[in-house]
């Protein structure tokens, strides 16, 4: 398996061409065979609601069995691939960050999206009928393209994200301010993890001490601020090991490790196996 580091743009995929800032809603039955027939990345969000079908959907090396009542949330930069049965049915919603309205509660919809898991089973959740009705309305608006359909789709998308967020957050909610800070930290890590491996860089931007930042991440994510950085490094390392032909040493250099041996030790400590063993095992899948 090999995947390019290229992020396929919103404009290049789908049956109907759209521009950034637009929202595309299409039937899965017309897209069961992906336009890019190998693991690849997007530069946009893709939401997939399964109504029927079988197969698998792989997102960042995690292979999820496909079944009715599942919702998949792909974020920009994730590597994904699917193999679906010919009778699969569902609804695909694709959009970029420019399509998102601001949440009146002071917590951005993009923050909520980024905190959603890659796969959500909503079949037994009370919100499932609401989700299906909402998605059907979105599909109808996109296909009919009546007056002001773009604005209506933006509003529906906001409701969809909030319903999904509600369906996976049964635990008591943290304050909006705390959630926003955690999302800001995760966003900073996602942008700078290659060159900044230390907590101090991020805590300084957030105007917190490293200890205070770690207390926040431990409370909300059950991991230290340092572990958030290390997890992001390991995720990217695993992507590159499985989906590219880059030498292990070059992967380490790309991730900001000046010494190849340091990267090898880091990977083994964090994952429990050497980079070479991980690559060999996962390419046999």
From TrEMBL:
Gene3D superfamilies: Homeodomain-like (1.10.10.60), Jelly Rolls (2.60.120.10). It holds the Pfam family AraC_binding. Keywords: DNA-binding, Transcription, Transcription regulation. One of its GO terms (molecular function) is DNA-binding transcription factor activity. The keyword DNA-binding applies. Residues 183-281 form the HTH araC/xylS-type domain. It comes from the Bacteria. This is HTH araC/xylS-type domain-containing protein. It comes from Bdellovibrio bacteriovorus.
């Amino acid at each position: 398996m090999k995947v390019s580091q290229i992020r396929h743009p919103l404009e290049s995929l789908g049956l109907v061409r759209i521009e950034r800032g637009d929202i595309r809603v299409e039937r899965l039955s017309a897209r069961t065979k992906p336009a890019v027939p190998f693991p690849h990345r997007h530069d946009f969000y893709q939401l997939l609601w399964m109504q029927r079908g079988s197969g698998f959907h792989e997102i960042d090396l995690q292979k999820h069995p496909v079944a009715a009542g599942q919702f998949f949330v792909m974020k920009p930069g994730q590597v994904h691939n699917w193999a679906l049965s010919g009778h699969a049915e569902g609804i695909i919603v694709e959009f970029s960050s420019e399509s998102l309205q601001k949440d009146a509660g002071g917590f951005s919809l993009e923050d909520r999206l980024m905190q959603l898991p890659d796969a959500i089973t909503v079949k037994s959740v009370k919100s499932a009928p609401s989700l299906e009705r909402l998605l059907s309305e979105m599909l109808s608006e996109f296909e009919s393209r009546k007056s002001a359909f773009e604005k209506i789709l933006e509003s529906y998308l906001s409701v969809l994200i909030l319903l999904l967020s509600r369906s996976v957050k049964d635990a008591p909610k943290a304050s909006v301010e705390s959630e926003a800070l955690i999302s800001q930290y995760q966003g900073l890590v996602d942008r700078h993890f290659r060159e900044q491996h230390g907590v101090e860089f991020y805590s300084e931007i957030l105007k917190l001490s490293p200890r205070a930042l770690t207390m926040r991440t431990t409370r909300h994510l059950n991991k230290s601020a340092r572990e958030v950085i290390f997890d992001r490094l390991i995720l990217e390392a695993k992507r590159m090991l499985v989906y590219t032909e880059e030498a292990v040493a070059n992967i380490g250099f790309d991730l900001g490790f000046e010494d190849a041996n340091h990267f090898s030790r880091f990977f083994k400590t964090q994952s429990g196996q050497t980079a070479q063993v991980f690559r060999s095992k996962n390419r046999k899948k």
